[in-house]
Inverse folding.
């Protein structure tokens, strides 16, 4: 997947584009992401007899894969626009999307392994992986969760920088319309996370967090569209 210069891409794009000798299309990269993670989930679930983890794991992989595709579409749409250099550097080059993803991931892991378990030790983790979860299964689950949570951080950052762009810059009507199309991609990016809701329905806090994430992104993006 050929990509723009380093610093003008998401971390996901940079990782794929900088692997020596690797030059594949975005579609191929996303397909390989899905197939690799899904195959790993099926193998681990079969080896350790974890049928309850297959559907939630697949849903998480689907969310991450769709998120990867929408990230690429969003970044390409933005780069095709007459983008101010400061906006592009802030959006792609600051790595704040990774920082937000790390904070969200650490918070999620703390909740799943420390806060959520009841006095008997029952939790979402034990429901999916049993009372004595295999280390390999937990490792894979955390890797997939990071893939999902990183995209949540990226989505947040894109919406916040989009609001800043709307406050600082003015564009002609045609360019404004194209920016609004990019913002619509980011809303879809957030909405994809709702595919995880059916698998956490018994945890009202996680449902509330997912719903609040989407509502917040829609609200911030609506504000930027109004200001723009």
């Amino acid at each position: 997947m050929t990509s723009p210069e380093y610093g003008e891409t998401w971390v996901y794009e940079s990782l794929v584009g900088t692997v020596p000798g690797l030059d594949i299309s975005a579609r191929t990269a996303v397909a390989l992401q899905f197939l690799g993670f899904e195959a790993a989930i099926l193998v681990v679930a079969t080896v350790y007899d974890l049928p309850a983890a297959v559907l939630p794991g697949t849903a998480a992989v689907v969310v991450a894969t769709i998120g990867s595709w929408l990230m690429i579409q969003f970044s390409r749409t933005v780069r095709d626009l007459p983008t101010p250099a400061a906006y592009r550097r802030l959006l792609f080059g600051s790595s704040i999307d990774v920082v937000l993803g790390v904070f969200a991931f650490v918070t999620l892991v703390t909740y799943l392994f420390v806060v959520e378990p009841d006095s008997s030790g029952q939790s979402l983790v034990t429901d999916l992986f049993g009372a004595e979860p295999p280390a390999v299964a937990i490792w894979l689950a955390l890797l997939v969760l990071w893939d999902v949570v990183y995209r949540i951080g990226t989505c947040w950052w894109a919406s916040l920088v989009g609001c800043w762009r709307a406050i600082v810059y003015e564009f002609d009507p045609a360019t404004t319309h194209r920016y609004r199309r990019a913002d619509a991609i980011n809303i879809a990016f957030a909405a994809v996370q709702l595919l995880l809701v059916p698998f956490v329905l018994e945890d009202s806090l996680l449902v509330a967090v997912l719903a609040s994430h989407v509502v917040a992104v829609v609200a911030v993006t609506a504000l930027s569209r109004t200001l723009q």
In short: The two ends are 33 Å apart (CA to CA). The mean pLDDT is 86. The chain has nine helices and no strands.
